[in-house]
Hints:
With 427 residues, the protein is an all-alpha fold. It has 20 helices and no strands. Helix 4 (51-79) runs antiparallel to helix 19 (357-387).
Amino acid sequence: xxxxxxxxxxxxxxxxxxxxxxxxxxxxxxxxxxxxxxxxxxxxxxxxxxxxxxxxxxxxxxxxxxxxxxxxxxxxxxxxxxxxxxxxxxxxxxxxxxxxxxxxxxxxxxxxxxxxxxxxxxxxxxxxxxxxxxxxxxxxxxxxxxxxxxxxxxxxxxxxxxxxxxxxxxxxxxxxxxxxxxxxxxxxxxxxxxxxxxxxxxxxxxxxxxxxxxxxxxxxxxxxxxxxxxxxxxxxxxxxxxxxxxxxxxxxxxxxxxxxxxxxxxxxxxxxxxxxxxxxxxxxxxxxxxxxxxxxxxxxxxxxxxxxxxxxxxxxxxxxxxxxxxxxxxxxxxxxxxxxxxxxxxxxxxxxxxxxxxxxxxxxxxxxxxxxxxxxxxxxxxxxxxxxxxxxxxxxxxxxxxxxxxxxxxxxxxxxxxxxxxxxxxx
Length: 427
């Protein structure tokens, strides 16, 4: 065994900085976000909202997020590898506790409409839109400074897993603890972005300023021209009715569904925190495995495998309702997330201009998912109130299946219309 292959990435300062940034961001998010839906619906430890009201909140969040994501993507492509935007997002993350405890919770209960408006603005600026930018910037850094994006992103999942575990124990004591720890982690993230600046990145920034080649800063006209690309809208349509369910099913519905399978809410909440942590830990491991699967089976086929796992996982959760089997089904999420994210990034840089990767990723992946959530969150939340979780899950699985069949015929093969970085499979 050649241990130098494992040690080598840790000699890359840009890899270390990107990995630590992703770890801190996802840690600051998971400590409260993993229980956000339970906090909204819980009568004892939360706001006691209905499925329809929760769906309205998620729709509003998604509507604001899809607008801000487009703005974020354009700004970051202009900034190239500067972390100015990330510093702004991290600053917002430090305010999560004051905002939720002193502003958001009182407003939701006294003035619901104003609460969801302010909440959607804050959530989008600090986390929902920011997540895509953190990922897009890290993916770009991986190409500039020669490290594997999947390995860096795995540290983000690792951070999420650790603090999702802690979140379950804190939440049953006092949800405010989750928000305050989120603010503290946000502060660490902000300090990291401000003070840790690898010299190799500073040198690259100076070179980019004077660069008039393909790696130069894209013009605003080039960014807007992306909207004229027919295949971009094909990807957008697919993501709207597949990856959208990452939020609608996994975050808007599953936590409350799962905790109700137990004798007491407290037992369910602690078990959910533990299960969520274990799942995300394995997700981090799979971030390192999926690139090898992609090399063997190709980008397009790996992405189709991802939607297949989604259809099976959501469908089974609609058919089974005992805690053990549902827990096993939840673990399939650890495979599904990297099967979607990593080949989607690579598909974009394979078939489109890589220097516009942040804007492309925001439009085709993140914004598309938000549009799907705007369209589907409230109707599916209302449906859940009327027919229950199980039947709603089966309907979601059916929609994802149709999206997968569409992708089989609509998505390009890896050697077709290669307008970006070529992809060579290992046979």
